[in-house]
Amino acid sequence: MNTFRITHTTRYVYTDPVSRCHNEARMSPMNLPHQTCAFSKVHVSPSPRSSFQRIDYFGNNVFSFDIHQQHQELTISVISEVAIDKPCSLSLENSLPWDQFTEHLEQANKHQQLIVHEFVLPSPQIPQSASAKDYALSSFTPGRPLLDAVNDLTRRIYNDFKYEPGFSSLSTPLETVIEHRKGVCQDFAHLAIACLRSMGLPAMYVSGYLETDPPPGKPKLTGADASHAWLNVFIPEHGWQGFDPTNNQMANERYIVVAQGRDYADVTPLKGVVYGGGHHHLTVQVDVTRTHSHTFN
């Protein structure tokens, strides 16, 4: 089991005063069968007039707050501690053939069918894509084991697409990413999900953090970590399994899940309405450090 302390600070600086704002933050890690969030504290400056917490439709932790005082800077800082169990070992070759998935799912209970089918349908940021299906086909040959096929798709995206920060934005269409063969982790997760859904397989978008190592011989820099995105695919008789096309690997005990949904729109770390403000400058600092305790002192 790995235990991590995560500090995530988001800061907006505005050119003009903001008279009020209404926001939702999805920045506290989830509780899942393999992951326990022992502690998560949200601090907002300036102080909100009101705030409350809830669990959304997808099981994500949501912190909503309103600020009714004039301000030109907004800071949201979240400190969390999370324990991650080591995942069970899965055999790529011994999983169910991908083209038998639909038949197998029909034997599941109705509740599970409803949950899984939702993640086969198109979503706001992942529409149906003939280009994605064309790209997926070479990985999903008849009779190929599901895990092996998804692992091959992950490997191909890693090899075929260039990781290039700044190429895409939150509004960049998936077709643009496919055409130019470049993007960032959000784009690669969306692409893999589009490929899987085009083959009739359920896949969900996951946002969170990945424990990283500094370059050899270098100390780990404060604030050098970042939010990350990957995907989950549903494996019969196992459940959801994470794959990371940005790093060409399956998710393991170094992956910390914050939120999950159909695509990025369901898991946006911070969104809301601002009155005034003009232009803004955004900075984000993330620290993921390994600890030896499960609770804070």
What does this structure look like?
With 297 residues, the protein is an alpha+beta fold. It folds into two domains: 107 residues, Immunoglobulin-like; 155 residues, C8orf32 fold. 19% of the residues lie in helices and 39% in strands. The protein contains six helices and 14 strands. The strands form three sheets. Strands 1, 2, 3, 4, 5, 13 and 14 form a seven-stranded antiparallel beta sheet that branches. The protein has a five-stranded antiparallel beta sheet with strand order 11-10-9-8-12, with helices on one face. A two-stranded parallel ribbon has the order 6-7. A hairpin with a 5-residue loop joins strand 3 and strand 4. Helix 3 packs across helix 6 and helix 4 packs across helix 6. It is globular and about 60 Å long. The protein starts with a strand and ends in a 6-residue tail after the last strand. The mean pLDDT is 92. It holds the Pfam family Transglut_core. InterPro entries: Bac_transglu_N, Papain-like_cys_pep_sf, Transglutaminase-like. It comes from Zooshikella ganghwensis.
CA-based shape: globular
Biggest β-sheet description: 7 strands, antiparallel
Distance between the termini: 20 Å
Count up the domains. 2
Say how many strands there are: 14
- Radius of gyration, rounded? 20 Å
CATH class category name of the largest domain: Alpha Beta
Considering DSSP H and I runs of 4 or more, what fraction of the residues is helical? 10-25%
CATH architecture of the largest domain: Roll
Pattern of helices and strands? EEEEEHHHHEHEHEEEEEEE
Indicate the CATH topology of the largest domain. C8orf32 fold
Total of DSSP H or I helical runs spanning 4+ residues: 6
What does the average pLDDT come to? Answer: 92
Low-confidence stretches: none
Which percent band covers the strand fraction? Answer: 35-45%
Content-based structural category: alpha+beta
